[in-house]
Predict the structure.
Amino acid sequence: MGERERALVAPPGGAFRGRAVVMDAGDVRRAIWRIAHEVIEHNRGTADLVLVGLQTGGVWFAEALAAVIAQVGGTAVPVGSLDVAYYRDDIGLRPVVPFAATEMPVPVDGAVVVLCDDVLFTGRTVRAALNALCDLGRPSCVQLAVMVDRGHRELPVRPDFVGKNLPTRRTEMVDVSERGVVLGDLLDSGAQVAPAGMQDVVTPAGMQDVVTPAGMQDVVAPAGGPDGGRA
Amino acid sequence: MTGRHLLGVADLGAEGIDELLRLADTFVEVGRRPIPRVAALRGKTVVSAFFENSTRTRLSFETAAKRLSADVMTFTSSSSSLSKGESLRDTVLTIEAMGADAFVVRHSCAGVPAQVAGWLGEVGEACVVNAGDGAHEHPTQALLDCFTITRERRARFASGAARPRALDGLHIAIVGDIRHSRVARSDVLAFSALGAEVTLVAPPTLLPPSLEGWPVAVSHDLETVLAKCDVAYLLRLQDERMTEQFVPSLHEYTATYGLTASRARLLGPEALVMHPGPVRRGIEIAAEVVDGARSVITTQVANGVAVRMAVLYHLLGSGAPVGA
């Protein structure tokens, strides 16, 4: 199963239970700063650069990255978004519904495109994104920036810029937003939320809206919320 | 939208319509690309089975299927074995046996798409899209009309901003041959489901025998209605379905119910003029109104492709629950 879309197929009432905070808001901010510098260094400037966020989890990441690149590199970099739903290889196998229309502010022809996504998992979304992108034109070069590389690749895809390499189990989920990166599990509706003895949750400052209901030691947030993708 | 088929607006409900319109938005972007094609329905076969003449609907569906990378089989009744006496059921099951995933069906008899859906259900999982059946329904036309009104109002007018229901507070006049019009039936259902107030304007002979249960007002005074409507939706006089004399003469019809250039000036500053086509210039609508600034008739045609892509994708590709 794909990565960002996993949240979509969560059963009504299903919930993401965070188990460990891997990065807090500060860590995410610093990773974005580092990646911005790496992008500029790698491309020797910002000429022809276009950042393209994958709907929906990669969009905020692309925008945040563009803001820092503009600050550091001194020039504004165009930001687009790509919805890869119609290019997925699992259409018809499960609900695949686009999040939003693709928006490309400048022609893709000849551009240096940096695809931005929150989590790199199987690589199937990136494969779909490459096909979608090449239908829009012929970029001179395509690079890949991800906030989290969680492994388990099913296709020969390698990121150029990584916020954090995070070893995971296949069954786990990763929740990424500006506010931090949380490793956890997707619960089916009606599943036990608070197994006894699970107390390894840390809630850093700035993540208070990941609710901890009274009497539970787990971080619980509704699946598919607007606060970033999970994979 | 829960069913495996799209037989009428009646099975969609406001939520189903909204869902398809949202999907159609993403396909408008696809249509603007240098290569307007996505691989979404690769390997699927769409049959366009038109047992009645059509230009725009058939081409629109076929274009939509091709833009989704589906294979298209085209069936036209005049050159088929129907003319040798093969029954409709046998014809449909023969095509199904070759492997078809969706049937786009148009027929001059109401209810044929539902019947085809029943036959197909006995042998497989192919889905049916009603592309117009008699004077019953033409659901994709109603969807593209709703889509065109919301998009054009949003693009043109400050008051066109998003509303709780897409057509909330709008006043839509449907003018002309309501009696023989499947478009009118689907439009009335769709427009009112999305919150619009609908007024039918027609000579008494061109209204359906009964309007009981229709969420509409009726008027025979076109000029008064034009002054207060947000959309004037004109319909063609369907001579081919008329078995008796419904209007004294075409000239008299135009004089009383035609959208002439002088009547078009009664429309408010934000009114749109629509027509499902084919247009008969000079009869139900004057040529200069068809080509005027308020007219979104060609936009309707362009949007039709995106809306039909959304319908085909929804039925064949989205993996949505099958079977209501």
Notes: The first helix of chain B runs from residue 13 to 31. Chain B has two domains: 9-137+302-316, 139-299.
